[in-house]
Amino acid sequence: MHNIIVAFLFIVLSLWTNKTIVAQSDISTLIQAMLDDSPMEADLQYICDAIGGRVTGSAANETAVDWTYERFKSAGLSVEKDTFSMPSLWLAEYTKMNLTGDQSFDVQAVSKYKTPPGKYQGNVVYLGLGTDKDFEGYPQDLSNSFVLVESELCLDINGLFEEYTNAAIAEFNARKRGAKGIIFMSSRPKGLLYRFITAKTADNAMPQFVMAREDAKRCIRLIENGSKLDVTIEVNASIGEAFQSENVIAEIKGSEKPEEIIIIGAHIDSWALGTGANDNACNVSMMIDIARQMTRLGIKPKRTIRFALWNGEEQGYFGSWHYTKENIDELDNHKMALSVDIGSGPIIGFFTNGRDELIPILDSVLLSVDTLGQYLNINAPIVGTDNFDFMLQGVPNLVANHKPSVYGINYHASSDTYDKVDLESLNTNSAIIAALTLSFANMSNQEAELLNRQNRAQVQDIFDKHSLEFTMRMFNVWDPWVTGQRGIN
Ligand SMILES: [Zn+2]
Fold this sequence. Notes:
Bound molecules: zinc ion
Structural class: alpha/beta
Oligomer: single chain
CATH class of the largest domain: Alpha Beta
Low-confidence stretches: 1-21
CATH topology of the largest domain: Aminopeptidase
Order of helices and strands: HHHEEEEEHEHEEHEEEHEHEEHHEHHHHH
Distance between the termini: 53 Å
Helix content: 25-40%
Number of domains: 2
Strand content: 15-25%
Number of helices: 15
């Protein structure tokens, strides 16, 4: 009897070790496949150059949905289009801006998201960085004024975050004071223009613009030298009511625990000043390639892996928000949600989004790719991308952190094109993300138990600990959380 048990244990143990070896060799094989030549770069080039900028609601966005759907399908994956509703249509056409008054000249500018089309006129008031103090120093009526706000040079991702914060403060102040609109100086030189959302996101109705840095500096110098300037603006945009958009979700079913899910994603939509190469076609093509290589190698993950190409991200992560609502009954079984959305610079670690306990798990998972980089995992919560609604729902979630080399300076700008992608790093990154995904999918049940879902109080605790209220207000997502419209209840 005793011997039988010993023999049985031996068999179980050797099976277990065998399985571990198989799993390990799967990961090494996958890493090698990701590093080898693949159609990933050609896919990226197609999305950027042939399809182009992919604003949600545009024909190009629809083409991108269809094309990526077919890419997953021809790689042998089960794939579906996941339809959801966007609150309203807004597709920029053009903005014409010119200054009159003591001097007359044309300037380069673009509208921010949801600026209503129309003709606008007003006097220009320069209010520094738009801080509380700047506004206090100008007590006059602003109802016929466009507030001109300067910006620091944006050199990297910290600069971007500062720009978002300063812009939100200026916007809150301008709204409070009843200003007619805001003109932000571009944070990047040489006439570079870019588009992003206002703090009201899809609810915005205030005309807001980004003006070329050189033009804005000229206006400021003139105003400081005593000139009076008026601005005339003509905005054209296609607008409309709510419309349907689609995420693309492909899947490899788990062989042992199909009900448990690891979801990795990148957003398929972009703004259309450039072609959304670093933001985020590079990581869309990465998702497709990871799925393709796993299928080609016949890898059978223990848990289900879902590959999500999110839509409507730039307007407020509508696609991933929808997914968390649509799959609410399965969220307890979502063991990990990983977003890759900070371009193509080398991956230097991951954001664990307020969950300290993920760091040791991640450290051990990253051992399989320790030859591909050095990783420092940071427990800061990221609000600006598709991990966000998973965080709100208490699902363990990660965002890849990258060296910002190519990201910040081309962010949402006309310069975000294929030639700016760091192809070599994208290739290495794809191996890192593939290995990480498979490791989570093949994790022991014991380890996976640590990846549990948080309750509302625990999620609130993250927001309190990291003082996230301002940042969440900056992206118009604080009230939806407080009222229970978004996130776990
Ligand atoms: Zn993005």
